Automatic annotation (TrEMBL):
Keyword NAD belongs to the record: yes
Protein name as annotated: Sterol-4-alpha-carboxylate 3-dehydrogenase, decarboxylating
Entry's transmembrane regions: 271-290
BP term (GO), one: cholesterol biosynthetic process
Length: 345
C-alpha cells in the first residue's frame, strides 16, 4: 500500500502569488526558509525557490499539482476591485474559492489562510475602530465586496479541527507599497488629468492605510500560529498599520512626495456621491453603445469621504501582531519606489 508523504511544514503555496500582495508574501516566505509553489493566472517574475503553476483557480485539475506536498496555502487571488464584472467576481471569488477549499482537502493541505478584506463590514457609512464582531455588510457597496463576504464565510466555515483542516482569514485595509498597481497609479493618473484638486467632505475622515510588509507579517503570523487548539481557527483578523490617518492627508503626502500639488478645495460629500452615482448609472445604461470608466465611482467616493478604520487588538492578542513598518516609513519607501510616476518623469 502506498504511504502518504506528510507534507513538509516549510513547503507552502501562494494562490495569486504573481499579484502585488502575493509577490511580497512569496519574497518574505523565501527569506524565512519556505519553499513556495505559486499558482496564478499569469506569471510576472521568476525567483529561485519558487515553482510557478499558471492557471485559473476555478480549474481544480490545474490547481491540484500546485498543492502537491504542501501543508500550508495562502489564497490571495481576486479580480481587481475596480472591475465592474459581477459574473467574474462570482466565478472567481465564490465558485473559485469553493474549488480552492476542495482542492486543499483533496491534496491533504492542513492550513488555509485567506486574504479577505476589512471592507466586508463596510456599507459606505462611518466605521470607527471597527472590531471583527461587526456584522457583514447587509448592503455591500459593490460586487467586489459582496463576493469577498461570501468568500470569507466559505473559508471560515470550512475550518474543521477534527479533520485537521484549519482555516483563518486576514482582513487588511488599504494596502500600499512598492509595486502596488492600483492606489498610487490611480492617484497619480487622476492628478495628471487635473482631477485631484478637490477634497470630498471636510477632509477630517480617518482611514487605515496598511503598508504591504505589515500585511505580509500578519499573514505569516496567522499561518504559524494556526494550530488545532488555537483561537485563530475559523476566525477573521484585521491587520492594519494601527495608525489611522486622515484620508486626504495620506493622499496629499503621496502626491506631494511625487511632486504634485495637494488637493485644496472642498466639495460637499453628498453632492459628489450623488454625481458619482449618476455617472455610474449612465455608464451602465450606455455600456452597449460605448464604454467609459468614471474615476470617481460611488465606491471610491464613499471610501474617500467617510471614516473607516479598524481595531487590530484581536490580532495583537492572538497572533502577537504589531506593525513592523510605520506609516511614515511606509509612505517614504512607497514614494521612492515610483520614480516613473513623479511629476515631469
Ligand atoms: N489591495 C488592497 O488594498 C486590498 C486587497 N485585498 C485583497 O488582497 C488580495 C490581493 O490583492 P492585490 O495583491 O492587491 O491584487 P492583485 O490583483 O495584485 O493580485 C491578485 C492576483 O490574483 C490573480 N488572479 C485573478 N484571478 C485569478 C484566477 N481566476 N486564477 C488565478 N489567479 C487569479 C491576478 O491576476 P490578474 O492580475 O491577471 O487578474 C493577480 O495576479 C485580494 O484577495 C484582495 O481582495 C484586501 C484588502 C485591501
Ligand atoms: C480618485 C481618488 C478619490 C481616490 C484614489 C485612490 C483610490 C484608488 C484608493 C483609495 C482607497 C483605496 C482602497 C481600495 C482600492 C484603491 C482605493 C480606492 C480597496 C477598495 C482595495 C480592495 C479592498 O479590499 C479595500 C480597499 C479600500 C481602500
Amino acid at each position: 500500500m502506498a504511504t502518504r508523504v506528510r507534507p513538509s511544514s516549510k513547503r507552502c503555496a501562494v494562490i495569486g502569488g504573481s499579484g502585488f500582495l502575493g509577490r511580497h508574501l512569496v519574497e518574505k516566505l523565501l527569506e524565512r526558509g519556505y519553499s513556495v509553489s505559486v499558482f496564478d493566472i499569469r506569471q510576472s517574475y521568476e525567483l529561485p525557490g519558487v515553482t510557478f503553476h499558471q492557471g485559473d483557480l476555478c480549474d481544480k485539475q490545474a490547481l491540484l499539482p500546485a498543492l502537491k506536498d504542501v501543508s500550508l496555502v495562502f489564497h490571495c487571488a481576486s479580480p481587481a476591485p475596480a472591475s465592474d464584472d459581477r459574473g467574474l467576481f462570482e466565478r472567481v471569488n465564490i465558485q473559485g474559492t469553493r474549488i480552492v477549499i476542495q482542492a486543499c482537502i483533496e491534496a491533504g493541505v492542513q492550513k488555509l489562510v485567506l486574504t479577505s478584506s476589512a471592507s466586508v463590514v463596510f456599507e459606505g457609512t462611518d466605521i470607527k475602530n471597527g472590531r471583527e464582531d461587526l456584522p457583514y455588510a447587509r448592503k455591500p457597496i459593490d460586487y467586489y465586496t459582496e463576493t469577498k463576504i461570501e468568500q470569507e464565510k466559505l473559508v471560515l466555515e470550512a475550518c474543521n479541527t477534527e479533520r485537521g483542516f484549519l482555516t483563518t482569514a486576514i482582513r487588511p485595509h488599504g494596502i500600499f507599497g512598492p509595486r502596488d498597481p492600483q492606489l498610487v497609479p490611480i492617484l497619480v493618473d487622476t492628478a495628471r488629468r487635473g482631477k485631484m484638486k478637490f477634497i470630498i467632505g471636510d477632509g477630517t475622515n480617518l482611514v487605515d492605510f496598511t503598508f504591504v510588509e505589515n500585511v505580509v507579517h500578519g499573514h505569516i503570523l496567522a499561518a504559524e500560529h494556526l494550530r488545532q487548539d488555537s483561537p485563530i481557527c475559523g476566525r477573521p483578523y484585521h491587520i492594519t498599520n494601527d495608525e489611522p490617518i486622515r484620508f486626504w492627508d495620506f493622499m496629499s503626502e503621496v502626491l506631494v512626495g511625487l511632486g504634485y500639488a495637494a488637493p485644496r478645495y472642498h466639495l460637499p460629500y453628498s453632492l459628489v456621491y450623488g454625481l458619482a452615482l449618476l455617472l455610474w448609472l449612465l455608464a451602465l445604461i450606455l455600456r452597449p453603445l460605448f464604454s467609459f470608466k468614471p474615476t470617481f465611482t460611488p465606491m471610491r467616493v464613499a471610501l474617500a469621504g467617510t471614516h473607516h478604520y479598524y481595531s487590530c487588538d484581536r490580532a495583537k492578542q492572538d497572533l502577537g501582531y504589531k506593525p513592523i513598518v510605520s506609516l511614515k516609513d511606509g509612505i517614504a519607501r512607497t514614494v521612492e519606489s515610483y520614480p516613473h510616476l513623479r511629476q515631469g518623469a
